[in-house]
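Would you mind writing out a protein's amino acid sequence and the numbers that encode its backbone to help me picture the idea?
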Amino acid sequence: MDDTLEKPPPRWAHTLSRFNHWMMFDIGGGPRPFKLATIINLQKAGTFPVIALLMWYYAGKTPAATSTAAWLYLAMHGSYGLTWLMKDLRFPDANWQGRATIASSIADAAALALYWLAGFVLISGISTQNYPLPKSAWFCLCVTLCILGCVIMIAADVQKFSTLRVKRGLITEGMFKRVRHPNYLGEMMVYGSFALLAWHWIPALVLVYFWGIHFSTNMAMKEASMSRYPEWREYKERSWWLVPYLF
């Protein structure tokens, strides 16, 4: 048996991958006016003004709107959106270049707007933020996760983009040496920091949806695709999905 043959993905991942692709690109058929990348970038670019607008709207309704946590959230999520935008304009991800139907474009925009719910529950006062640590320590944790996550995600995406332009194949060095999906790890750290700052079940549920339906599916499909390379077995044995020595 040839160990270099591509292993089929798990059935659940294959099924969810087809469903996710239909949702993102093909609902209803018809014209395809927008690239998915355009919709994503509009959401990222809109984060700073949307969160700032929420703070202005709720400023006279609740002290939560102008609290330290709200300003931190604006800085963290708003800056992340702008950072993503700059990264994608220079190092675009090939996965997001497909064109979506009108119905899928609307569904994509609505799904991405769910990421703003963390800011909404924090700024509107829905979340009471009874953090398990003193506020200063909790803020430090959230900011640290956000910054490190941004660095990991961007470094991994830039390495992948630059490497694959020169040579196609399995990337096993740099950010990918010990972690097979560092770009997903970085993004999970970033959005995890927003949910921790909001400290409410609503943003946690949003992350369960995205991580469980989209991230896990994409990683499983990528693992199956990478299995076709001769060096896959050795690479898999010395690396981890997301966190070295844990998972």
Notes: Strands lie at 34-35, 99-100.
